[in-house]
Amino acid sequence: MWHLITNALLLMKSRQMVGCNTRGSSFTRALLGLPADELHLCGDAAAVPLVQKMLAATGDSVKVQYYERLSPLVPSKVPLGAFSNIKTGDCVVTFSRREIYKLKKEIEGGGKHLCSVVYGSLPSGTRTRQATMFNDEHNFCDILVASDAIGMGLNLNISRIIFSTLRKFDGLELRNLTVPEIKQIAGRAGRYGSRFPNGEVTCLNKEDLPSIHSALESSSPFLERAGLFPAFDLLLSYSRLHPTRSFNAILEDFVQNAKLSPTYFITDCEEMLKVAAVVDELPLGLQEKYLFCNSPVDMNDEISSQGLVQFATNYAKTRFVRLREIFTPEMLQVPKTQTELKELESIHKVLELYVWLSFRFDDSFPDRELASSQKAICSLLIEEFLERFGWQRPMLRTRMSASSRPDMGRGKATVSRQDVDEEPTRARHRVEAATMSTSPSALVDRGKRRA
Ligand SMILES: *[C@@H]1O[C@H](CO)[C@@H](O)[C@H](O)[C@H]1NC(C)=O
Ligand SMILES: *[C@@H]1O[C@H](CO)[C@@H](O)[C@H](O)[C@H]1NC(C)=O
């Protein structure tokens, strides 16, 4: 984990962020640009020489302090073998959401355990609540099935990490996990002062065991370069050289021709170029285009990218984007299938995008509150799905509701916006109705009609 703390303000935390392919640039910018007298960085020793080099150039003085991990982390001599060997506090790691739900089902099918899930496209509030359920020793969810998203700022009381695979699809190909990746994930096991102070690491299959042992024994290679990306002012100056070019062309040209010192690299901007190609079609200023390009859109997600196109198009027309122009009032429902669940996760992303834009384009996105409450409803419906998904076996249900689940079977409740705003957890069970909602098809269709 990398933390960057200035004047007691926690700014960023991600391991080796400075060398991260896509997000490193904001860390670099903060490191070099923050007007603070003193900065405290916490993270992996692999970045120390790089940080020293960067700060030598700026004439700052650097003091390095090394800390040992407080709790032991032990790679196991045997693989898990079968899920019948799973026990309370275990976290099974895999890298696709489909695989996560498959494993959850398989483990719960054994009739002894229930699983919380954590993965990147779950709303962050949902991730946190799933983690809390898993951490709470009085809760019935005692196993975690997760992706590498467990590294994203969650406090987890994990006894043992079990890699179900050491390969990950990275958008292009199925590749081996790197040594730092294995170490970072493995490092989530065991927590000083928790129920599980001694961390253990293993894998499902025997073949993967040697890789785990060798990864944990090797030290992470030192980072050599820090990520960098041009700020808007720089791109603006550059664009004056090519006044007729599209933003996409300017960006591409800049990245290709930029000459950097060996300490830096330009961060990956594939996603940005995709957005640039979209907003270049619209009558927008360079700064507006830059903002849309920096928004948290997922261009590989059809619904999320549709949302961005709609927001940008409507913004270009009137500089005033109501949420209702894009969302058709309809009943939002608890997803019944994996496909519906994925759609709901995507709708959540669109709402998050709206909220993000509302903070950047002052008065042009006036429905921030509505978008926020709809976001909360999406999370609740997703959590409801996760619960129902885990309550399919009557035997378990009876046992659980009699003991640790006093509020089960309380009957149906209706969620109103007020409930959601005030206390998300109280209305957790049996969510039946939402005030205003959408379905992804409505979102796309409306968009087409308006275009
Ligand atoms: C991935 O890891 C396996 C097992 O360690 C190894 O046999 C294989 O060569 C690796 N593949 C690549 C592309 O490095
Ligand atoms: C982890 O476990 C400890 C001890 O059981 C507990 O006090 C703590 O609240 C747990 N941590 C979290 C994040 O729940």
Automatic annotation (TrEMBL):
<keyword id="KW-0547">Nucleotide-binding</keyword>
<keyword id="KW-0732">Signal</keyword>
<dbReference type="GO" id="GO:0016787">
    <property type="term" value="F:hydrolase activity"/>
</dbReference>
<dbReference type="Pfam" id="PF00271">
    <property type="entry name" value="Helicase_C"/>
</dbReference>
<keyword id="KW-0067">ATP-binding</keyword>
<feature type="region of interest" description="Disordered">
    <location>
        <begin position="400"/>
        <end position="451"/>
    </location>
</feature>
<dbReference type="InterPro" id="IPR041082">
    <property type="entry name" value="Suv3_C_1"/>
</dbReference>
<dbReference type="InterPro" id="IPR022192">
    <property type="entry name" value="SUV3_C"/>
</dbReference>
<dbReference type="GO" id="GO:0042645">
    <property type="term" value="C:mitochondrial nucleoid"/>
</dbReference>
<protein>
    <recommendedName>
        <fullName>Helicase C-terminal domain-containing protein</fullName>
    </recommendedName>
</protein>
<comment type="subunit">
    <text>Homodimer; in free form. Component of the mitochondrial degradosome (mtEXO) complex which is a heteropentamer containing 2 copies of SUPV3L1 and 3 copies of PNPT1.</text>
</comment>
<feature type="compositionally biased region" description="Basic and acidic residues">
    <location>
        <begin position="423"/>
        <end position="432"/>
    </location>
</feature>
<dbReference type="GO" id="GO:0004386">
    <property type="term" value="F:helicase activity"/>
</dbReference>
<keyword id="KW-1135">Mitochondrion nucleoid</keyword>
<feature type="signal peptide">
    <location>
        <begin position="1"/>
        <end position="19"/>
    </location>
</feature>
<dbReference type="Pfam" id="PF22527">
    <property type="entry name" value="DEXQc_Suv3"/>
</dbReference>
<keyword id="KW-0347">Helicase</keyword>
<keyword id="KW-0496">Mitochondrion</keyword>
<dbReference type="GO" id="GO:0045025">
    <property type="term" value="C:mitochondrial degradosome"/>
</dbReference>
<dbReference type="Pfam" id="PF18147">
    <property type="entry name" value="Suv3_C_1"/>
</dbReference>
<dbReference type="InterPro" id="IPR055206">
    <property type="entry name" value="DEXQc_SUV3"/>
</dbReference>
<dbReference type="GO" id="GO:0000965">
    <property type="term" value="P:mitochondrial RNA 3'-end processing"/>
</dbReference>
<dbReference type="GO" id="GO:0005524">
    <property type="term" value="F:ATP binding"/>
</dbReference>
<dbReference type="InterPro" id="IPR001650">
    <property type="entry name" value="Helicase_C-like"/>
</dbReference>
<dbReference type="InterPro" id="IPR050699">
    <property type="entry name" value="RNA-DNA_Helicase"/>
</dbReference>
<dbReference type="GO" id="GO:0005634">
    <property type="term" value="C:nucleus"/>
</dbReference>
<dbReference type="InterPro" id="IPR027417">
    <property type="entry name" value="P-loop_NTPase"/>
</dbReference>
<dbReference type="Pfam" id="PF12513">
    <property type="entry name" value="SUV3_C"/>
</dbReference>
<feature type="domain" description="Helicase C-terminal">
    <location>
        <begin position="62"/>
        <end position="236"/>
    </location>
</feature>
<keyword id="KW-0539">Nucleus</keyword>
<keyword id="KW-0378">Hydrolase</keyword>
